[in-house]
Please model this.
Amino acid sequence: MRILVTGAAGFIGSHIVDVLQAAGHEVQGLDSLAPAVHSGRPSYLPAGFDLTIGDVRDPAVVSRAVEGADAVCHQAALVGLGVDLADLPAYADVNVTGTAVLLEAMGRSGIPRLVLASSMVVYGEGAYDCRRHGRVRPAPRSPDDLSAGQFEPRCPRCREQLTIATVGELAPLDPRNAYAASKVAQEHLASTWARMTGGSAVALRYHNVYGPRMPRDTPYSGVAAIFRSALEGGRAPEVYEDGGQRRDFVHVRDVARANMCALDAGELGTLEAFNVASGEPHTVGEMAEALAEAFGGPRPVVTGKFRLGDVRHIVASPAAAARGLGFRAQVSFGTGMAEFARAQLRDPVTALDPASPVWVSPWVSPAARTPAEPEPTPARGRAAAV
Model:
């Protein structure tokens, strides 16, 4: 099978490339090599890898990238929570418009399979049970409660403390930040594409992914990479809230395998969603302790700081992925953290290989052009940012 991986130079996308090639698939890539993440073509991409460099919002670039593909693994996205209203246009433009452009090109080219990188953030808070009222959905935590150190969500009806439950794929979607809203929109667009084309779409709702090649100290860094960077600098990891936030930390190699499993799954004409999780939840504080111990650095410091938009607990059920995809995580928490403590973060970037089949698109949104501006044409030597 010939598979296009968007975001192929990124943290997760590059591992998907590795897994697919090892399984004998022919793989091509699309990546903007955005300056916020890359300063050029990463050295960990295979020599001679067919990488289209350009913006996923650019129809001309995407049309070239999908040529000859039998399936697409769509990883390209602007990630992170977003911090204020000014972030909304960027998340909507890159993640939502970019996905729409890709799906239109897939439909025009007759590509029947899509694997979409979604996220646990589509759920908002995780699942909770109240002793008196059963399964409930707490409201977003207020700044006043967080400032007072009251981090646990309470029952919206009686205000009593809740019990954490596992989130299944049929849980209501409740996005609580700009990134989450864009991921929900991506799923809806993919569902529409599947109905209109009769194609198969599988949305993989990643939980907290960690592992080699995570970007260090950028807005794209996950909490595991932030802690690792602190340890490398001789600093204690700073744990927000009280460290009791529960998450499911899943290794990037397991996530890459889930993408490969998803290529053979899904029903025609519809979108199916699956949690991609280890099934072995831990608190953020436990993760910081495990990483500091494996690294041999200073112990974490619990700060009490918080970010609006963060959720308190989200623990997934991986059962549907086991049934529907044949996927089960293989890397345990202890093994993964011990490896990650010494794994290389974002590799130094090497110069572009002149022999590599690379396109560069200095793309500008049509809405941003003035009438005097000509349509841009593909050129070599400069990468456009997503």
Summary: The radius of gyration is 21 Å. The first helix runs from residue 11 to 22. The CA atoms of residues 200 and 268 lie 5 Å apart. Residues 347-386 have pLDDT under 50 and may be disordered.
